[in-house]
Fold this protein.
Amino acid sequence: MPEQVQAAPDIPEPQPPVEAGAAGASARREYERRSAKRENRIREAHPRLGGLILALSDEPQTTTAWARGAKGEELLGQGLDRLRARGVLTLHDRRIPRTKANIDHIAISPAGVFVIDAKRYKGRPHLVVTGGIFRPRRSMLFVGSRDCTKLVEGAHKQVTLVRSALAAAGLSEVPVRGMLCFVDADWPLFGGSFVIDGVDVLSPKKAAEQLLAPGLLDQPTVDSIHRSLALAFLVA
């Protein structure tokens, strides 16, 4: 009888690497666009003195805020990337579909998925609670004297989008948590975190502690979630 030839086993094709993105890239581009537009406007209006005017005047706060925000995202992104050796995978500067908005960072670890909004504000983040027996109880987020409560609503919207993307990929049971991470803030020596309406407000150090906490997701599942979210939220 002729020798039976066994079929070669199917070898899955290697998947392309996940494009993690560059932290703060879109904010940096917006700053450079605004800065260049201002420079061109001044030089066109004052051909001879434009350079001197630019040297002696400061950029408006609405422009420098983009540079400050980009730096905060870059610093936080660098810290998150250093956790890769400990099983944390990251996605940076991800575009929200059908909008001009973006998600600063998404981190995936055995503890779950973390949607992280990086902020670089001056002052100390703190929780203010008003109301009580005769008035509705309300929790507000302040940084110094600045009311930043709207940031909490933004974090909830981003978490909802990420949960929807996971559900579409058949991963609806994966825990998702929102974080507002204040970089270079005036955090106290002890503490450095609190929760408002289910959103963690914390320092980069405290964020890292949560990402590295024990969890139920194994590494193949973390890898699968990382790839699924990279496809759902492309680089901005």
Observations:
- Helices lie at 25-45, 50-56, 61-81, 150-168, 204-211, 219-232.
- The longest strand covers residues 102-109.
